Amino acid sequence: MILCFTLADVCHAYQVLKKGGLKDENIIVFMYDDIAFNEENPRPGVIINNPHGEDVYAGVPKDYTGNDVNVSNFFAVLLGNRTAITGGSGKVLDSCPNDHIFVYYSDHGGPGVLGMPTNPYLYANDLIDVLKKKHASGTYKSWVFYLEACESGSIFEGLLPKDLNIYATTAANAVESSWGTYCPGEFPSPPQEYETCLGDLYSVAWMEDSDVHNLQTETLKQQYELVKMRTMNESMVFGSHVMQYGDIELNNENLFMYMGSNPANDNFTSTYDNSLPSVSRAVNQRDADLIHFWHKFRKSPEGSPRKFEAQKKFFDVMAHRTHIDHSVELMGKLLFGYENGPEVLNAVRPAGKPLVEDWDCLKIMVRAFETHCGSLSQYGMKHMRSIANICNAGVEKEQMAEASAQACTRIPSGSWSSTFSGFSA
């Protein structure tokens, strides 16, 4: 069993597994762990994932935290390779041929890429290669992968084979954002003292379903259907399409094989009699930082340092976003012409095809862009499709470097500046 990375969601997921009867020795937790005792946390040492929820931080193992939360350690843990681990508890997924594995991963994302609290980020093809190696080792019977991230469907779309005994669900399809929930100003909203979203809509949906249902009788398919309905929302103005990939037949198995089951829910007999609460609105995951700074600014006393700081960070974020958006747009026009540039950058490949044919090209092009324009960062990850399309169009590395240099004559400074490191290894 293994968990990653957004803190409130991950802590809640741990509590689900713990109440399900799993032992800590069979749970591996990756979390940056920068929230519980952060000065911005209104309840020091406490983390909640629901407006009326209990503390989910208590008792959570800290196997890999801080800079130990990285791609290299994550892959080493999945493969059970202790010698490749640096830092952390050293705990790895030392599974056997008859074991059932559950992986929950929650972070920012973009087309073909997943975020990490540290750099570099995680590319889809590298993850799929690790899953194939794990399967070839014959060290598991079946594997369930829950993935929370924007464009999370692109991690498996056209990439995850059906013969690895791996079933995956994602918070969104390959072309849309995922959504935050329990956000300030929305309904239901967090307690008044909070200025941030408490969780992600897809993640909260599967965990709150697991909190109340008998997982000995509920199947993966039943949970998928419930989570899909809640995450899509009624109007589809605020929500995303939950997807399934890989060995879909595994969704007929019961959840307790992967998550255990809370004995307190043993008398619950029908999955569909207890509908999950809906939300009136949700927040695009990429805008969660703006929501935080705006509410911090709005609630701070006039003329206070706190108000000034919130305003500055809000403007820094907007400057960074404008810089990234403008740079990518101009680069496309320089490469393909002012009329054809937007069309090439925004093209979406047919369903069932991976984001890019040559993943090494994608990594090279990202490095070329970031060399001249600064880090894409969490927000700029949404432009990974545009850079993939540049690869698919056959552009050479030298052309990309030249266009990036012309597009980025300056990089805005500030705490959210693109001068901070990004995807490059």
UniProtKB/TrEMBL annotation:
Record keyword Signal present: yes
GO BP terms: namely: proteolysis involved in protein catabolic process; vacuolar protein processing
Tell me one GO molecular function of this protein.
cysteine-type endopeptidase activity
Report the GO terms under cellular component.
vacuole
Q: Which residues carry out catalysis? A: 108, 150
Alphabetized InterPro entries for the sequence:
AE, Legum_prodom, Legumain_prodom_sf, Peptidase_C13
Q: Which residues form the Legumain prodomain domain?
A: 313-408
What's in the keyword line of the UniProt record?
Disulfide bond, Glycoprotein, Hydrolase, Protease, Signal, Thiol protease
Family under the similarity heading:
Belongs to the peptidase C13 family.
Record-given protein name: Legumain prodomain domain-containing protein
**What organism does the record attribute this protein to?**
Kingdonia uniflora
